[in-house]
Amino acid sequence: MSVWCQGMRKPIVAANWKMNGSLELCEHFTGNLVRPDYADVWIFPTALHLGSLTDSLRDTEIATGAQNVWCEPNGAYTGEISATMVATLGAQLALVGHSERRASFGDSDEVVAKKFKSITDAGLKPVLCVGETLEERESGLAFEAVERQLNVVEEAWDRPVYLHEAIAYEPVWAIGTGKAATAEIAQEMHALIRNHVDGNGSGESQALRILYGGSVKAVNAPELIAQEDIDGFLVGGASLDVNEFNQICEAMKS
Ligand code: 13P
Question: Residue 221 belongs to a domain with what CATH number?
Answer without folding.
Answer: 3.20.20.70
